Amino acid sequence: MPTRFFSVIVFLRQLLPVVAAVLFTIQAQAQYFGQNKPRYRVQDFSVYQTPHFSIYHYIPNDTLLQALAQQAEHWYALHQQVFKDTFARKNPIIFYNNHADFQQTTAIMGQIDVGTGGVTEGMKNRVVLPLTESVAQTNHVLGHELVHAFQYHLLINGDSTSLQSIQNLPLWMVEGLAEYLSLGRTDPHTAMWMRDAVLNNDIPTLTDLTVNPRYFPYRYGQAFWAFVTGLYGDTIIEPLFTQTARLGLNEALKKLLKADEKTLSGMWKTALQKYYTELPGYSDKERIIGKKIISDENAGRMNLSPAISPDGKYVVFLSEKNLFTLDLFLADAKTGKIMRKLAGTLKDSHFDAINAFESSGAWSPDSRRFAFVVFSNGINKVVIKDVAKGKTITETAIPGVAAFSNLAWSPDGKELAFTGLVNGQSDLYLYQLKTKKVTRLTNDPCSDIQPNWSPDGTRLVFATDRLQYQQGNRVNPAFNIAVYYLASGKIEVLPLFTGANNLNPVYSDNNRILFLSDHDGYRNLYGYNPTTQKLLQHTRFITGISGITPFSPAISVAANTGELVFSHYNKQQYRLYRTTPGELLQEPVLPDVLNADAAQLPPLTTNTPDVVNPGLAALHAQPLLPADSFSITTYKPKFQLDYISGGAGVGLVGNNFGGMNGVAGGINMLFSDMLGNHLLLGGLSLNGSWQDFGGQFAYLNQKRRINWGAAVSHVPYSAGSLSYGGVDTLTTTQGTKLPVDKYYFDIFRTFESRADAFAYLPVSQVNRVEAGAAFVRYSNMLERYTTYYYYGQAVAEERTKLPAPEGFTVVQMNTAFVGDNSFFGVASPLQGYRYRIGLEQYLGGLNFQTVLADFRRYFWVKPVSFAFRALHYARYGRNANQLTPLFIGNPMFVRGYSLNSLREEDIYNQNNISINQVVGSKMLVGNIEIRLPLSGPERLSLIPSRFFWTELAVFADGGTAFYNLADFSATDTDVPVPTKPLPVFSTGVSLRINLFGALVLEPYYAIPIQKETKGIFGFNIIPGW
Q1: What is the pLDDT of residues 332-380, one digit of tens each?
Q2: Axis crossing angle, helix 261-277 with helix 249-257, rounded to the nearest 10
Q3: Measuring CA to CA, which of 360, 539, 789, 800 is 20 to 30 A from 120?
């Protein structure tokens, strides 16, 4: 799963699929299924110009905007020291005010996951990211993404590299460098991952990092770069990155470091083991406290954001137990028995996603209801579930607060406390459930997150960066624990481990506060009594208590019993443990102790040039650029070239019967504005003579809720035939008559010239409405090339234009309602549903209507999926029965009747089946499959494989084709060729083979359910339905 600080890089090898996606987007009606990216609201962007960046934004907070601009310039100065590169043009940065808005971006094609923290794409080198709930988070994501901007710029403008060179760079090397340059070698979270690798003897080699997705590229990549720079200094970064792009990793290592991948892997492993095993207090076995209740034994590998009920009986948590989605589950807090799925996007398709990675839900005081945060209609909403019934009680937006997280239910049951993000500023809020009144508790640039109620309802404990922020660190301030007194509005920052990150505070009783801290480099649980000022350490884990990110909620206390549930990271898994206060350690600790040794990424050295880490430490103290360095401009959309491809040639197009001069080639171009609101696609193609010229130009406007566009195209379709014209006499210029053989080569061309207009409304991520109209003109041309042969030698050629069928015009209108929340496996969907209901009307030269109803449902019951399809397609109207008939034996519908082999012809002959009985203008199809992912990803497939992805399916197909319903009651007595529609059925087995995502091959063995028939081998080239 992606994490919060997940950055997406659009590689060059993905550009062709990107252009294909644009083609499907522009012709929305051609996209049969697929999920949507709704544009729920329109933002009015402005442009803030800095010396090196154009910042596109709609932030109404001028102070915040200026701070972001300063941060971007400070990152530029730091990264420039490493890459030794200069931006000749201003690099674009696009800010969204919150993650819900970011998910709607049109600057980036494709879906934006809840866990994606930022994106850098290569076509315009756009850096796209949302504002987050903390200053430090936003600053880190900005620094990370700007590393990618430098990486792209360096490759594109390098002497011996290009954007294609990024294919030589392993993902862990690219993303790891972005993490190292934005976080450095002191990082408690990545160090926790490395201690886990050492503790469990699971340190990957560099080859493992490249080929095994089990090793997260961000964490391990960062640790690798810390290792390399610790040995060779930060001056090695740019040449190693560039040479890897040129030569590949192994050759670059040998050239620059005089070591290959295997040698360097061994050195890295030794450095990690030596450093972490020699830390004080290290043990080769984790000391576990409490009882394990949730793990991969009964749930998934990621079990996050636990919330124990006030009575201590139940726990709600997030897990990818069902493999495809991260869902909310309800479990018995004593035994860990999972009672039901409480919520998920498959179960509750009316919302787009659960706010999963850095937000927790809240129990009502009576332990009967549970509240959590979802993304719905482009904002965050509160969903409250009846836990016993699993039903939604309410789903509501919070007025004036579009983005929020970390709900806390008041002890009297009347209010919810939460962190709200408004105009880039995170503050504490209260929401009255009955009156829907919203009260803002804090209002300042400081970040206030993770509120939790005191049992008496008079205070909120929360995490805040206000201490360091107010002391001048406005770039990466650390978090302290603070108390908000509701009666007075007073805020008290507790004097605990100042300078460390102290997070996830919860009250264990009316006086004691539990929280997580990394003050000694580890991530452990602490307890503090504000009355006695006694501070105790309650756990001593070698790895730590953590969620996906340091800001993910990882502990929860039952208000009535004091029992604690926490998320422990070990063996690359997140497991939930339940414990009681009496089981916790009670070790006194001083509140001013800071020690970052365990948070370091080895090796530590002072003998090599270090640019990055001193630069990061001084980032908050950099001088501000003067005000006249910045300016404001309005945003004016301008088309800029994103992508171009193609080539051309001129030569002789020849065959055995003569030749002719011709041209062949084509070009495709994609243009868009900076925000991606407007797309323009042009494509030209020429293959042969000028009559074979084709082209398409299309425009798509996706600025508003309804996407619309238009397209014009001219496409030639040609077919040729060769025939013998007999013996003729040819008279030469000297008057000699020669007996010659005459051959005709006829070229028949049909030209389709059309103009389209279309629109589609994404209702949600899974549903959309489509509509379109087209004016199409079909015309024909027939040319004959006559070639004369004298004893096998071509001696003359003539070209004549013959009469061709008259052209005709068709007006086509269409509309459809589409739903798709399915999840794809190795070669077909395995979970969810798909449906499409469509109508089409054709007028003019052809007059008919079509009706389509296609319903598909998939049920994943590990290790197989049960798939069902019901399909009806029909033509009605004047010309409905005059078009090419529908053939039910097409293997896309019913396998085993395709007439592609003699054995299939025998089936028809032996059973007296006429082709007329299996064709028509209408059809009904039903299919059932049991799909087993045979080889592929480890958690999905029977046989783990990194490269060879296959799916085994047992199927039963059935269907019938007909012209009219009355045909079923017709009789075929004494008729030599039966015409009565015949339902046909088959069963069999197929093996789908996914060729690296480019193509799905399906060899199958079908047994037609007829008398005296044998099995038929067949072949499909298409993903499973």
Answers
A1: 999 999 999 999 888 787 888 999 889 999 999 999 999 999 999 999 9
A2: 70
A3: 360
What is the rounded average pLDDT of the residues 282-299? 94
Question: Which among 508, 506, 565, 548 is positioned nearest to 336, based on CA atoms?
Answer: 565
What are the backbone angles phi and psi of residue 744, rounded to the nearest 5°?
-105, 130
Strand, helix or coil at 598?
helix
CB-count exposure of residue 238 (10 Å: 0-12, 13-18, 19+): middle
3-class SS at 690?
helix
**How much is the pLDDT for 21?**
34
CB 577 within 8 A of CB 563: no
Q: Which of 282-291, 313-322, 424-433, 906-915 has the lowest mean pLDDT?
A: 906-915
Contact residues for 1024 (Cβ-Cβ < 8 A; gap 6+): 827, 828, 829, 867, 929, 931, 951, 953, 992, 1000, 1002
Residue 2: pLDDT above 60?
A: no
Bridge partners of 118, per DSSP, are 7
Percent above pLDDT 70 for the chain: 94
Mean pLDDT to the nearest integer, 909-920: 86
- Residues with Cβ within 8 Å of residue 77, at least 6 apart in sequence: 622
DSSP 708-772: EEEEEEEEEEEEEEEEEEEEEEEE-TTS-EEEEEEEEEEEEEEEEEEEEEEEEEE-SSSEEEEEE
Helix-then-strand count for the chain, H and E: 14, 55
Q: In sequence order, which residues have a C-beta less than 8 Å from that of residue 866 and are 6 or more positions away?
A: 858, 859, 928, 929, 930, 931
Q: What residues are paired with 944 via a beta bridge?
A: 936
Distance, CA of 105 to CA of 101 (rounded, Å): 7
Which of 426, 378, 384 has the alpha carbon at shortest distance from 402?
A: 378
Distances (CA, A) of 459 to 431, 492, 850: 15, 11, 65
Predicted confidence at residue 690, as pLDDT, reads 78
- State how far the alpha carbon of 243 is from the alpha carbons of 233, 239, 247, 436, in Å: 16, 6, 6, 59
Chain segment 859-897, per-residue pLDDT in tens: 999 999 999 999 999 999 999 998 889 999 999 999 999
Angle between helices 261-277 and 188-199 (to 10 degrees): 100
Q: Are strands 640-655 and 631-634 parallel, antiparallel or unpaired?
A: unpaired
Rounded Cα–Cα distance for residues 1000 and 827 (Å): 7
Read off the pLDDT band of 996 (50, 70, 90).
confident
In the structure encoding, which two tokens stand for residue 895, read together? Answer: 């396998």
For the chain, the maximum distance between any two Cα atoms, rounded to a whole number of angstroms, is 125
Residue-level pLDDT at 676? 96
| CA-to-CA dists, residue 402 to 199, 379, 399, 726, angstroms | 43, 5, 8, 81
Question: For residues 150 and 157, what is the distance between their CA atoms, to the nearest angstrom?
Answer: 10
Can you tell me the distance from the alpha carbon of 693 to that of 401, in angstroms, rounded to the nearest whole number? 55
Average pLDDT over residues 454-469: 97
Asked if residues 546 and 192 have their Cβ atoms less than 8 Å apart, the reply is yes
**Residue ranges of domains in the chain, CATH in brackets:** 1-144+617-636 (3.40.30), 291-599 (2.120.10.30), 823-835+852-1025 (no CATH)
Which tens digits make up the pLDDT trace of 652-679? 344 433 444 455 578 899 999 999 999 9
Dihedral-angle region of residue 375 (phi above 0 means left; psi in -120 to 50 means alpha; beta otherwise): beta
**Per-residue pLDDT reduced to its tens digit, 57-69:** 999 999 999 999 9
Q: Is 86 exposed, middle or buried (0-12, 13-18, 19+ CB in 10 A)?
A: exposed
Neighbours of 541 (CB within 10 A): 21
Q: How confident is the model at residue 966 (pLDDT cuts 50, 70, 90)?
A: confident
Q: Is 628 exposed, middle or buried (0-12, 13-18, 19+ CB in 10 A)?
A: exposed
The C-alpha angle 446, 8, 68, rounded to 5 degrees, equals 30
Write down the residue that tokens 């600053």 correspond to.
Answer: 139
